[in-house]
Amino acid sequence: MLTQSLVFDKGLVSEFRFNEPVVNRNLSTSPVVIASTVLAPGASTERVWLNASVDWTFSFTGTGPANVLFEITRNGAVIHSAVQSISGSSIIFGFVVYNHLALQHLDVRPASGTGPVLYKLQARVMSAPPGTATVTSAVLSAAKLILTPSRRM
Predict the structure, then answer these.
(1) How confident is the model over 37-49, as pLDDT tens digits?
(2) Interatomic CA distance for residues 36 and 17, integer angstroms
(3) What is the CB neighbour count within 10 angstroms for residue 55?
């Protein structure tokens, strides 16, 4: 049985944007932007729910792990990141390993004055054996959430 003291917060999506560029980009040790989206500025109580999905490969010509850093930035500042590693063998020249990354982040400070808010998804190789890291597809979506006052039941 539910008690009357439970508090339920509800939110509404006021804006939704996504970017699914046709990508097939080789990565390097410098950040490479693989998707981006822009949201209009909002109230300081708004939140932005970010979702990213990346398919990437590493074509090995040497042995050892390939470590790639994926970052979500807000107006150039990193707000969320993850490193993903894959290993392979160079027994066969050009041995390719496929991988998938999913990132989710709730940006609790998205307001940035009066200008638009630019979110970017970027990737770079942190360390790797000889070979090539490539992003084959990427999606970045952003949903602006308007929080409503708490309601008691």
Answers:
(1) 998 877 777 888 9
(2) 10
(3) 15
Are the C-beta atoms of 144 and 15 separated by less than 8 Å? yes
> Does any domain span residue 52?
yes
Tally of domains within the chain: 1
- Prediction pTM value: 0.83
Q: With pLDDT > 70 as the criterion, what percentage of the chain qualifies?
A: 80
Q: Render 70-102 in DSSP notation, one character per residue.
A: EEEEETTEEEEEEEEEEEE--SSTTEEEEEEEE
Terminal Cα distance for the chain, rounded: 12
Structural domain span for residue 67: 17-134
The phi and psi torsions of 85 (rounded to 5 degrees) equal -120, 145
Check which CATH number belongs to the domain holding 53 and give it: 2.60.40
